[in-house]
Design a protein that fits this description.
This protein is mainly alpha-helical. It folds into 2 domains: about 90 residues, no CATH class; about 45 residues. Helix content is about 50%, strand content about 5%. The protein has 7 helices and 2 strands. Strands 1-2 form a two-stranded antiparallel ribbon. α1 packs antiparallel against α2. The termini are far apart.
């Protein structure tokens, strides 16, 4: 379903269209082309929008939340939703003994590219002084702080164990 060369779906930072609008456009495309798997995926993402809320205080002083308006929804909000959906699907795939699915591939086409093992290793070599830490695992915080959500914590842990 998602062959990056031919797929009309996907998004990357730096494009002039917001992730919110791209998902809406891609839903329309999926409906026109009768791509039910993609259509259902976009509807699933949109079904998560009500979870995006803003804290507010009522006149009575009571604290509550309200759903974000489309203008308030950021690309990062949507990336967090997509990451959550992809993560839960990966758990299901692990149980089934499978490695990937079209659904996960489609979700990942809307997320920033994850840092590769080589990129993480190169950064660690250049930035971390292992003589100043008791165990390589103590460098985990620094690595994750640098890469943020672009690095898989389990991959970083594996790399640090190899280096230690």
């Amino acid at each position: 379903m998602v062959d990056n060369e031919k797929s009309p779906y996907g998004w990357s930072e730096g494009t002039d269209v917001s992730l919110y609008n791209k998902i809406k456009q891609d839903l329309k495309t999926a409906m026109k082309t009768k791509d039910s798997a993609a259509r259902d995926t976009f509807r699933l993402i949109m079904g998560e929008y009500p979870k995006l809320t803003v804290a507010m205080t009522l006149e009575s002083g009571k604290k509550t939340t309200r759903v974000k308006t489309p203008d308030e929804i950021t690309d990062e909000d949507l990336q967090n939703i997509i990451r959550g959906l992809a993560k839960s699907e990966k758990v299901v795939l692990d149980i089934k003994g499978e490695t990937t699915s079209d659904y996960v591939e489609l979700l990942q086409s809307y997320l920033p590219q994850m840092a590769s093992k080589e990129e993480i290793k190169a950064w660690i070599d250049a930035q971390i002084d292992f003589s100043s830490v008791k165990s390589p695992m103590q460098a985990m915080g620094q690595v994750m702080k640098h890469f943020g959500k672009l690095a898989d914590g389990n991959l970083v842990k594996e790399i640090l164990k190899e280096m230690g």
